[in-house]
Write a structure and sequence with these properties.
Blueprint (H helix, E strand, L loop, with lengths): L1 E3 L14 H11 L8 E3 L4 H6 L5 E2 L13 E2 L8 E6 L17 E3 L3 H4 L1 H9 L3 E3 L3 H9 L5 E5 H15 L6 E4 L12 E2 L2 H17 L1 H10 L2
Parallel strand pairs: 1-2, 6-7, 6-8
Antiparallel strand pairs: 3-10, 4-10, 5-8, 5-9
Organism: Colwellia hornerae
Pfam family, one: SBP_bac_3
Protein name: ABC transporter substrate-binding protein
């Protein structure tokens, strides 16, 4: 199954762990399946599926994979994406025109998922999509970009890491919740319908047993 490269606390590539990997592993295990993660830059995940390099992907990254033989499952996790600015910049984000003249850095494909906010930014070359989450945080704190669109837990993880790496007095930030993330945007895609069904069954069991919450709690405190 194709996953993005390192996205703590959801994906730790070095030891095949994290919130998303642990939940998908547990869900598949209910019907005897073993997860074997393969890592790609986020934007290459649909390519990996379309070219049959993998049997499944963590999500379609804005590319409809039904035409490529994909069967969509229930979402294992939903990223809590927010627009983040430095408090010192005093930027107010409430409507699309508030992004005029601002530069935005986010994950690859974000402009497809949030066209209301990012379409114009992308068209005017003020958007930078990069899968390296630490780079996103650096670009904000070092003043290269005005806004980061990121999952709040991912951003906090890397802000702490940046502080430890560079001894920075990390500035306060403001989270602007302008998006409502939909489960359908984060559905894993399987090539085999039966395995998709097995995954959905297992995911329900993981949630019913309380294991879902235990996995989240294990990583959110990091």
């Amino acid at each position: 199954m194709a996953f993005s490269k390192e996205i703590p606390p959801y994906i730790f590539e070095h030891n095949n762990s994290g919130i998303e990997i642990d939940i998908i592993t547990a869900a598949l295990a209910h019907k005897g399946h073993t997860l074997k993660p393969v890592y790609f830059p986020l934007g290459r995940i649909p390519y990996a599926f379309s070219n049959k390099l993998v049997d499944a992907v963590m999500g379609d990254i804005g590319v409809n994979l039904k035409s490529q033989g994909g069967f969509y499952a229930k979402a294992a996790v939903i990223y809590d994406n927010v627009f983040i600015t430095l408090k010192s910049s005093a930027i107010s984000l409430k409507k699309p025109t508030d992004f005029d003249l601002l530069s935005v850095v986010s994950f690859q494909g974000a402009e497809k998922r949030y066209p209301k906010w990012l379409k114009k930014v992308k068209e005017q070359d003020r958007f930078y999509g990069v899968s390296d989450q630490l780079t996103q945080v650096k670009l904000l704190y070092f003043g290269r970009y005005d806004v980061v669109l990121s999952d709040r837990y991912i951003f906090r993880f890397f802000a702490k890491k940046l502080k430890l790496m560079h001894g920075l007095d990390v500035q306060e930030v403001v989270e602007h919740k302008l998006t409502i993330d939909k489960p359908m945007d984060y559905r894993p895609v399987f090539r085999d319908k039966n395995i998709r069904d097995d995954f959905n069954f297992g995911l329900n069991k993981v949630k019913e047993s309380g294991e879902f919450e235990r996995i989240y709690s294990k990583y959110i405190s990091l």
